[in-house]
Each structure stands twice: as structure tokens, then as C-alpha cells.
UniProtKB/TrEMBL annotation:
Location, primary (coarse class): nucleus
Bias (Low complexity) ranges: 225-254
Keywords: Nucleus, RNA-binding
Originating organism: Catenaria anguillulae PL171
InterPro entries assigned to the protein according to its UniProt record, in alphabetical order: Nucleotide-bd_a/b_plait_sf (IPR012677), RBD_domain_sf (IPR035979), RRM_dom (IPR000504)
Domain RRM residue range list: 8-79
Gene Ontology annotations for the cellular component aspect, listed alphabetically: nucleolus
Compositionally biased intervals (Basic and acidic residues): 181-208
Region feature (Disordered): 168-262
Record's subcellular location: Nucleus, Nucleolus
Taxon lineage: Eukaryota, Fungi, Fungi incertae sedis, Blastocladiomycota, Blastocladiomycetes
Keyword RNA-binding among record annotations: yes
GO molecular function: RNA binding
UniProt-recorded name of the protein: RRM domain-containing protein
């Protein structure tokens, strides 16, 4: 949109960081009505390029702003401000003005270009460029005195196998054999035990053998306890342990044991 002759346009240079569109419009509104404002920014990063163009509704206001703000110190920067003649104002000077700048999402743009389905011609062109780069790299390596064969893993060999460039025809793909999984010995033994018939063993009857001595019961232990206590007491006192009991006492002890076993 071309600028009317009645309006005034100023150039503002050496703009400090932090003095952007909103701050600029609010500041210059004290002089008069601001119709259009455009701060030059980097298209990729969106950072300020430190110069802007401001259009005022009245041309006289533009003259006042140019004379007032030229050489003005702001945030450590000396501003450069001057009015542009109407003949120097380009019709596209305020293209994209009065709207918030949004930097392009370069990551999304790159991902979109990569994920686009490519034709065979495009793939062949890319492969040929890779082969040319590889040849130049191999030539540099040989010029350094290094003799190494890259033919097996080169782009040219891989592309020839895939049928993308002229060369060996692509080899027919044979079906891959099924992988053989060896069973572990423990697993084999468990499976064999499951398949084997279960044979129940007959329960063994408990037979008491003659002459086999059974474990003494609690009553027998109570009878034998006093003699053991007496011997222990005699040992602690330094005296000789009690002698062997008489046959009568032995017979009485045996009877008590038999009675306790019954």
C-alpha cells in the first residue's frame, strides 16, 4: 500500500534490545497518531536488526519526532532518527507491519521436507551425489599414501545391489532359515519327567525290632536327673562323684523305667 503524501515516515536506527514494536508504538504515541510501524527482524531467528520505520498520520509530527529523537540516548545507544522524503518511501516498505512477528519453525519445515515421499529419480540423483563424494574422498586417501579397499562397503556397490545405478543386478533374496533354538538340559529333564508314568510306592509299615531300645521318655529322664545333678554338684565342690548304685537301687530304677515306658 503506497504512503499518502500527507503522512510522514521516519527512519529510526541503532535501536537497543528491548525496544520492540509494542514499546515503540507506546513511546511514539505521545507525539501523535502512529498509523504503521515495522521493526526489521531476521526471518529465521526473529531477532531485531536494530532499525525500524514509523509512519505518522500527520507529516508535521514526523518532523518533530526526527528533530527530537535524533541523537537521543536510550539504553546506552545513541539513536539515529530522520524523516524520509515521500519519493524514497517504497510501496512495500510497510509490508507485514502492525502484526506480531512469528519466526518460522525451521525444525518442522525440515522434517516436512525430509518426510516427503521421494520418487525413484530423486533417490537415484541423491545416490549419484553420494557416489561422487565418496570417489573424491577415496582419491584424497590414496593421495595420502593409504591403500585401502572400500569396494565392499562403498555406495556404488550398495546402490548396484539395490538396482539404483548401472552395475550388478540385485541378488534374489532367499528366504531366511528359521532360527534353531536349543533347549536347555533342565527344560528337557522337566519335560521327560512330565511324560514318564507316575509309579506310587507302597507305604512301608513300621515294624518294631526285638532288642531295639526305644528313646527314653520324659518320666525316665526325670528319674535319671537327680543322679546327674548330684554328680555335677560333687564335681563343682571338688569331691569325688557318687559311686555305682547298689543292685537293689538298679532294679528299682529299671522297674521305674519300664513303668514309664508303658
Amino acid at each position: 500500500m503506497p504512503t499518502p503524501a500527507s503522512r510522514g515516515v521516519i527512519y529510526l536506527g541503532r535501536i537497543p534490545h528491548g525496544f520492540y514494536e509494542d514499546e515503540m508504538r507506546q513511546y511514539f504515541t505521545q507525539f501523535g497518531t502512529v498509523t504503521r510501524l515495522r521493526l526489521s527482524r531476521n526471518k529465521k531467528t526473529g531477532k531485531s536488526k536494530h532499525y525500524a520505520f514509523v509512519e505518522f498520520k500527520d507529516g508535521d509530527v514526523a518532523d518533530v519526532v526526527a528533530s527530537t529523537m535524533n541523537g537521543y540516548l536510550m539504553f546506552g545507544q545513541v539513536l539515529v532518527c530522520k524523516r524520509l522524503p515521500h519519493s524514497q518511501v517504497h510501496p512495500e516498505l510497510f509490508k507485514g507491519a502492525n502484526r506480531k512477528f512469528r519466526p518460522a519453525n525451521l525444525v518442522a519445515k525440515e522434517m516436512k521436507s525430509i518426510n516427503v515421499p521421494k520418487s525413484r529419480e530423486a533417490v537415484v540423483k541423491t545416490v549419484k551425489n553420494l557416489i561422487a563424494q565418496e570417489k573424491a574422498r577415496v582419491a584424497k586417501i590414496k593421495a595420502m599414501g593409504i591403500d585401502y579397499d572400500f569396494s565392499d562397503i562403498s555406495f556404488a556397490a550398495l546402490a548396484a545391489k539395490a538396482g539404483l545405478v548401472e552395475g550388478a543386478a540385485p541378488a534374489p533374496s532367499a528366504p531366511a532359515p528359521a532360527p534353531v533354538v536349543e533347549e536347555k538340559p533342565a527344560k528337557k529333564a522337566k519335560e521327560a519327567a512330565k511324560k514318564a508314568p507316575v509309579v506310587e510306592e507302597p507305604a512301608l509299615e513300621k515294624q518294631s525290632k526285638k532288642g531295639k531300645r526305644k528313646a527314653p521318655s520324659a518320666d525316665a529322664e526325670e528319674v535319671e536327673a537327680p543322679a546327674a545333678a548330684a554328680n555335677k554338684k560333687a564335681k563343682s565342690a571338688g569331691a569325688a562323684p557318687a559311686g555305682k548304685p547298689s543292685p537293689a537301687k538298679q532294679a528299682a530304677g529299671k522297674k521305674a523305667v519300664k513303668k514309664a515306658r508303658r
